[in-house]
TrEMBL record, chains A, B:
PANTHER family per record: GEPHYRIN (PTHR10192:SF5), MOLYBDOPTERIN BIOSYNTHESIS PROTEIN (PTHR10192)
Reaction equations catalysed: adenylyl-molybdopterin + molybdate = Mo-molybdopterin + AMP + H(+)
Designated gene of the protein: moeA_2
Main function: Catalyzes the insertion of molybdate into adenylated molybdopterin with the concomitant release of AMP.
Keyword set includes Transferase: yes
Name under which the protein is recorded: Molybdopterin molybdenumtransferase
Lineage: Bacteria, Pseudomonadati, Pseudomonadota, Alphaproteobacteria, Hyphomicrobiales
Length: 412, 412
């Protein structure tokens, strides 16, 4: 939590993300029943296991007949409705009353809609306007056996679940949910406020990070609060490694370079191979990524706002990489400034604000007055961040800017 | 599943939604631990239970001192770091080495950053450039006891969870998840394809609708497939009512006016009070809504694509109303047509298509060639719908249109 920024290597966000990318291979797979598949990431190429419809079926309510016979009155043999077994053949001079979804019997080559037929007893007359070969959905029209329906890497939604069911799949191979261990560091942190236990703040980072991991498809494991003591941190880290079942460790706090910021040196003692130790962004500079003993670790800042902004930038793509969908891009959009912005310093800068609809219908962004990094209430009130490049000049109201809407990263 | 459109009352989508709105009051509430709160809807007004920070704390690493003494060398009394108990007073002529987050002791009114101080042994000299009253975060600066932090009706995300933790809330009152019973009707439907059991299609609607209910915050209860027989449907509906714990019943199939479409007459026999029996939209005309015995019921079409499009239009806002967040609007956006569109008929029309980035950076929509309503593969391939008004003329490539991106209704 120190303020010093010594050390030469401070990559831009894009460069930091590129370094992270190669170090987060997709996790293994498991088979799940269709009921459990929504939200998971497909891990196989799938094809239809059957023809849909399995037989030719009527696409409308009407009469099934041979078109060659349509000129003269037809004798109606009976009724076929959806779900009935395939009926006997329609012989010359006959027809079948048929309802949408019912199997078209052998012999029939046309369904005439009921509006274009006149029935009296078992006699049916086809009216002018009827057309040959209409209103029959052929076997396999919607899905043909062997036709590809899903690619690996697809995040499954309700539409895919419906398609899998229709195609005869009762289960599907998916990537298991990435397991993410979360720990907070800091002597000042507490789960429960008690004045007699020293000057404390309640730990907001772990609850928020657990919620993010869950919303973004992972399974959080809560490692609690570790005090700012090398031995305590070292044994906490060693325990994660020994457990052997964690895909990513996320820490918050202690990742800066102050006298009591222990994450970097403690990791170093465990053989840490860093991808980066800080990032040219604000807030969120004190973000690190690397691995030790084969375990990827993402170190987030201690300040709550900085931790969450950095999670949006790094934890979200880390989880999507582990889950097998590739790197989730930061969801940048354009908006018009409702309020002026100051010049930015030497880092890419995120400022919290609120979105509204402008007079022209487009999105309009108003920056919040208080941008204090410990101010979680401001982040909760905001619904977007403006993303400003390093060394940007002041921006006036009316200028277009790049924003990140929180509802584009659901769960944030 | 009949094709006839008799009956005068066929409201537009907006009118149908308005009629639905008053019939879906928010469900009851429960208290959940913070770990279970993300994704739930807050059901109370909440205020901060404590000041954050609880004491004045250092906002930077440096030295805490009385500004009046800054002109002469100071004796350093010791070190305070985050989490340390509140130290004794800083008396005249003394200072305290202090780190970010540590309590500022009584007497000190300024923190001078370490870059503007020179220490030799326990002597500290303040350098030019230091300013009075800086770098102290006063008690309650971030959150003041009693300050409002959350309103009822807020869908809680990770940011809110963090704020609740920081404000001293270990649990929160939320609406319970709406319980949604789902049944499919149709003799042709099966869970498992078997040629000897009549002409069947696999039921894709229930699996997809269950996934939607879950993605949109509800708890699905699967009532299975009911054949097209009045007695079977009637007793299935009566059982839902008797169970007494369902907030919404969703049916699919049998909601049209064909000879074997039984949902409307069977509901009528149970005292159905309809809000609407069909809607001026395509696909999805055969959508009904109302209540019987106090139970809201949404009847969706049997065709898979029609059922899912209608679910996007009606089930999503139904769930958000039950959940207490108010009516979720259909997420309409603008895009440019990449392909021409035909004139529409007398109903609001949804066509499936794919989105791409145009040369100017905006969204470009290309309609899919096959718009068959039983074609779930086409819906799964699509990533948006174009929404065209009734009786719209043909539209040329390059024209702006209204679209609904599926990723704006996550889970669809």
């Amino acid at each position: 939590m120190g303020a010093s920024t010594k050390g030469a290597d401070m990559p831009e966000i894009a460069e930091a993300l590129s370094r992270m990318e190669g170090m987060l291979p997709a996790v293994g797979t498991e088979r799940v029943a269709l009921d459990k598949a929504a939200g998971r990431v497909c891990a196989e190429s799938l094809a239809a296991r059957l023809d849909a419809p399995p037989f030719a079926v009527a696409a409308m309510d009407g009469y099934a007949l041979r078109w060659a016979d349509a000129g003269a009155p037809l004798r109606c043999l009976g009724t076929a409705r959806a779900g009935d077994p395939l009926g006997g053949p329609v012989s010359p001079g006959t027809c079948l009353r048929i309802f949408t979804g019912a199997p078209v019997p052998p012999g029939a080559d046309t369904v005439v809609v009921q509006e274009l037929a006149e029935a009296a007893g078992d006699r049916v007359r086809i009216l002018p306007g009827a057309e040959p070969h209409r209103h029959i959905r052929a076997a396999g029209d919607n899905l043909r056996t062997g036709a590809p329906i899903l690619r690996p890497g697809t995040r499954l939604t309700a539409r895919h679940v419906g398609l899998l069911a229709a195609a005869g799949h009762a289960e599907v191979a998916v990537h298991r949910r990435p397991r993410v261990a979360i720990l907070s560091t800091g002597n000042e942190l507490s789960e429960r406020f008690a004045v007699d236990r020293g000057a404390q703040i309640l730990d907001a980072n772990r609850p928020a990070l657990k919620a993010l991991v869950q919303a973004w498809g992972g399974v959080p494991r809560d490692l609690g609060i570790v005090p700012d003591e090398p031995d305590a941190l070292s044994s906490a880290l060693a325990r994660v490694l020994d457990a052997g079942d964690i895909d990513l460790l996320v820490t918050s706090g202690g990742a800066s370079v102050g006298d009591f910021d222990l994450v970097c040196p403690t990791l170093a003692a465990l053989g840490f191979a860093p991808a980066f130790r800080k990032v040219r962004m604000r807030p969120g500079k004190a973000t690190l990524f690397g691995q030790f003993g084969g375990l990827p670790v993402l170190g987030l800042p201690g300040n709550a706002v900085a931790a969450l902004v950095s999670a949006l930038v790094f934890l979200r793509p880390a989880l999507s990489l582990l889950a097998g969908t590739g790197r989730a891009a930061l969801p940048e959009e354009r908006a018009i400034l409702a309020t002026p912005l100051p010049a930015t310093g030497p880092r890419t800068t995120f400022l919290r604000g609120r979105l509204d609809r402008g007079p022209a219908g487009g999105a309009v962004f108003a920056v919040l007055a208080d941008q204090d990094n410990a101010m979680l209430s401001g982040l909760a009130e905001a619904d977007a961040l403006v993303l400003r490049p390093a060394d940007a000049p002041p921006a006036a109201a009316g200028e277009p800017v790049s924003i990140i809407r929180f509802d584009r990263a659901p769960g944030f």
